[in-house]
Request: fold
Amino acid sequence: MFKQDAFTLIAGPCAVESFEQLETIAKLLNKLNIKHLRGGAFKPRTSPYDFQGHGLKALKWLREVADRYQLKVVTEALSTQTLPAVIEHADIIQVGSRNMHNSALLTAIGQATQKPVLLKRGMSATYREWLLAAEYVASAGNSNLILCERGIRSFEPSCRNTLDLAAVPALQAESDYPIIVDPSHGTGRPDLIIPMTRAACACGAQGAMIEIHPQPDQALSDGHQALTFPELIDLVEQLDPLAKACHRPLA
Ligand code: PEP
Ligand code: MN
Reply:
């Protein structure tokens, strides 16, 4: 689980595309001292004709690369059918925005594992609905939860979502779960990801999850919002002094 007195960065591709892609990314994370690798093996796509993820193969690549570079794997459980494989290969089980209301999946996760569960906010979920979704996992037997603010649907068309950073202190007042921020899905814009990560740190979040890609224009999903490697390096350089000033050094 995340350290209370640190700001934890999670980075990786939207979707796992190949072993080589993961290895290139893991080398960068290693250099930047980032300990958490994200990547979707099962992808919840809006269109059924878009890339759905490499599935079990991708889980195996994630595990192998993470073990080689001593990283923790964060990956999404999309359904109860594939949940056992995700639990076997992941260190942190992600529940995506589209599944926040899937009580059957939440209960199954709570019953099946004590591994940390990263619960993303539904794209139109209230704080209460989000906390009650967490309660489904907790009441089924696993209170090891991390909440992730990932933006909500609003009327503003220039961003993919509207990142609700007020959720961070608001939920900290109501629960003891760590809360992190996903500025990648929260804004959908590379130019806003670094400033919003700084803001997430300043408002008390315990970490941030960032999508990166060696060649965003070649990505099989969410390339438009992926940071390049130099941009991730820039993010860490900008964040480091701020995180220290906030007494939560980068982890
Ligand atoms: C993701 O993080 O891979 C993802 C699909 O995000 P969300 O569930 O927030 O849309
Ligand atoms: Mn994505």
In short: Residues 14, 40, 44, 76, 96-98, 120, 150, 182, 185 surround phosphoenolpyruvate (ligand 1) (CB under 6 Å). The two ends are 12 Å apart (CA to CA). DSSP finds nine helices and eight strands in the chain. The chain has a mean pLDDT of 97.
